[in-house]
Specification:
The protein has 259 residues and is an alpha+beta fold. It folds into two domains: 104 residues, Orthogonal Bundle (Arc Repressor Mutant, subunit A), CATH 1.10.10; 134 residues, START domain (Alpha-D-Glucose-1,6-Bisphosphate, Chain A, domain 4, 2-Layer Sandwich). Helices cover 39% and strands 27% of the residues. The chain contains eight helices and ten strands. The strands form two sheets. A seven-stranded antiparallel β-sheet has the order 4-10-9-8-7-6-5, with helices on one face. A three-stranded antiparallel β-sheet has the order 1-3-2. Strand 5 and strand 6 form a beta hairpin. The longest helix has 30 residues. The radius of gyration is 35 Å and the shape is rod-shaped. The protein starts with 6 loop residues before the first helix and ends with a helix. The relative contact order is 0.12.
């Protein structure tokens, strides 16, 4: 009978728990059927049947010694099965690596991270308020309509309102509405990250990150605004926001308490 291993035959053979047990016993060395059966919870006829299947799969070999047939694990059969598994594993790893690389490549959408090609510097502003981080985060987000300077920094003016609605920041005036951005990360009381495009198409969205950091008895609110390359006005928009964010943060500090 051939000792050439065929993967289908191998895995069919070792799919049976008792045949795996036979292989485990034979790892210690060659044995005749009688001694093998003595170490297993089955009789000699069943052991002989399992040995025939294992031998047909190329996993067991035998030799005659006088009147006895001695059985042992066939290293070449095990090695062939191992090579098949290694090849499968290598292919799986290669596919996984390709998938990871694809996922790590920057997307072409408005939410991509700024690349090494970034040419307009991020806007960085901060303010320290008396409220602790939990309170500061809540006031900044849930109570934005109470402190945001709508008269000067909105789409529809002083009579409009602004609030977060199902992961989006929306300004409303009567039946009119304007989306300001989409929440990307909401991690109270430490982090808010979102796209930003009040009065502009979503394709021109920039990225806004606001962190709330413990500071003595209050909170340091750090704001970073990036992605100006996507904005139609580019550097001009960055300069305008650079001047505008301090006004907005001072309005927030009025409600949250100036430290």
């Amino acid at each position: 009978m051939s000792n050439q291993s065929d993967p289908d035959a191998v895995f069919d053979a070792i799919g049976d728990p008792m045949r795996r047990r036979v292989l485990e016993v034979l790892r210690a060395g060659e044995l005749p059927v009688g001694e093998l059966a003595a170490r297993l919870p089955i009789g000699r006829p069943a052991v002989s049947k399992h040995l025939r299947v294992l031998q047909g799969a190329g996993l067991v070999r035998h030799r005659s010694e006088g009147t006895r047939n001695l059985y042992a694990v066939a290293p070449e059969g095990i090695a062939e099965a191992q090579r098949w598994l290694v090849g499968l594993w290598d292919e799986a790893l290669g596919a996984f690596a390709a998938h990871v690389q694809e996922q790590e490549e920057p997307s072409e959408g408005p939410l991509e991270k700024e690349s090494e090609m970034e040419t307009i510097a991020p806007i960085r502003r901060e303010v320290v308020v008396a409220a602790p981080p939990e309170r500061a985060f809540d006031l900044f987000t849930a109570s934005m309509g109470r402190w945001w300077p709508m008269a000067t920094h909105s789409v529809y003016g002083a009579e409009a309102t602004v609030a977060f609605e199902q992961g989006r920041l929306v300004e409303r005036l009567g039946e009119q509405s304007a989306e300001w951005g989409v929440v990307l990360a909401w991690e109270p009381p430490h982090l808010l990250r979102m796209t930003w495009h009040p009065g502009n198409p979503e394709a021109e969205s920039t990225d806004l990150t606001v962190r709330f950091l413990p500071h003595e008895t209050g909170t340091r609110v750090e704001l970073v605004h990036t992605g100006w390359e996507r904005h139609a006005l580019g550097e001009e928009a960055a300069r305008n926001y650079g001047d505008g964010w301090p006004i907005v943060l001072r309005a927030f500090a009025t409600l949250a308490g100036v430290a």
